[in-house]
Amino acid sequence: MWCQPRSLATAVGAAPVRPRGTVRPRGPHESGAPDRAGGGRRWCHYAAAGVLAGLVRGQRPGHRARTGAVVSSMAAQDMGILLIEHLNLNVSSTEIAVEFYEALGCCRDERRPLTKTLHSNCGALTQFHTPSPENEAYIADAGPQRWRGTIHVAYDSPAMLEAAAQRLRTLQAEERFASTDLTLGEWQEDLQELSVLGPYGNRFLLHVAPAKLDALGPRCGARPGSEKSRCLGMDALTLEVPVGTAKKAALFYKEVLGCAVRDVDGCADGCAVLAGPGLAQELRFQEVEGCSGKEVGEHMAIYVNDFEGCFQRLLERGLVWVNPRFVHLDKSTTLEEALHYSCFRFKDVVDETGSKLFELEHEVRSTSHKSWPLAGA
Ligand SMILES: [Fe+2]
């Protein structure tokens, strides 16, 4: 079965957003709700989730358990990805990035001067990191980067999403954004979602969150300085991958990172979505004809509970990798070094034979990392 997505181009420049809060919100986590902003032909969706599920049990000593319904929804597993925390995407101008992400509903981490890489809090727990040549000489000639897929941002209500859309339209009308890619698509009333092309060509899907996104905070905790954020967070990422690799990739995340994976209704013939318990976030693999699977220098930061186990399994497969760009932050090649930095990296996703499926730089952190957003929760 071929699940035909609507291209962003067909949605752009159409009717204004008209959310009406009476329609039941329906998020992309729900069965049969395809990612509308993707551009592929053949869809194979697998999601590696895990996400927040282990935040309570099995944590390092000293972490306080959270209480109430959030605990019960997050305690489903000890393994897997605790949090997809940030995307790191180069931009050409910090000023443009600040304005765009704030219009989106994020708030700048004001503890960091703008001479350093911009961190925009997207909800209580997730972030966008947008280095520019203005503050990082290493990328002086690199140019902006695009996430190879779709970035899903959740909002608390149709009104909050509508407000974001209005802010983005205001930016769109400003001269300094005229030469950027910033474009808004057509509001999808039935799905409660809106496609947005960011100023540097990143594809965003803004949507009204299902109630289960309570797990993204702030009830379960929040990063200091994120209180002004007007969105709930980055709740899903769709990554375009080569045909035939989605299911194998899901198995990689299951075996190496301990993620829960599952099929999702709506696709057949190998097209499916895997998701894990909690369902607060998803990493989806969307198979696209002709996709090379090569990284473009972007990275995704994740927190894992079984930090040592993940490191060892990746080391055994020869996948631990040091990014020369970030050796001032971490350069882990041994477990001792990984524990020292509370961080290591890998970028090759492989099948069971060790053959590379595609690339995606993962910045893997433990909950001992200084930036763990729930350290004080
Ligand atoms: Fe990072």
UniProtKB/TrEMBL annotation:
State the organism named in the record. Answer: Durusdinium trenchii
**Signal peptide limits:** none
Q: Where is this region: Disordered?
A: 9-38
Question: PANTHER family this protein is in?
Answer: BLR6907 PROTEIN, VOC DOMAIN-CONTAINING PROTEIN
Q: Which InterPro entries match?
A: Glyas_Bleomycin-R_OHBP_Dase
Q: Which SUPFAM superfamilies match?
A: Glyoxalase/Bleomycin resistance protein/Dihydroxybiphenyl dioxygenase
The protein here is known as VOC domain-containing protein
In this chain, composition skew of type Low complexity spans: 16-25
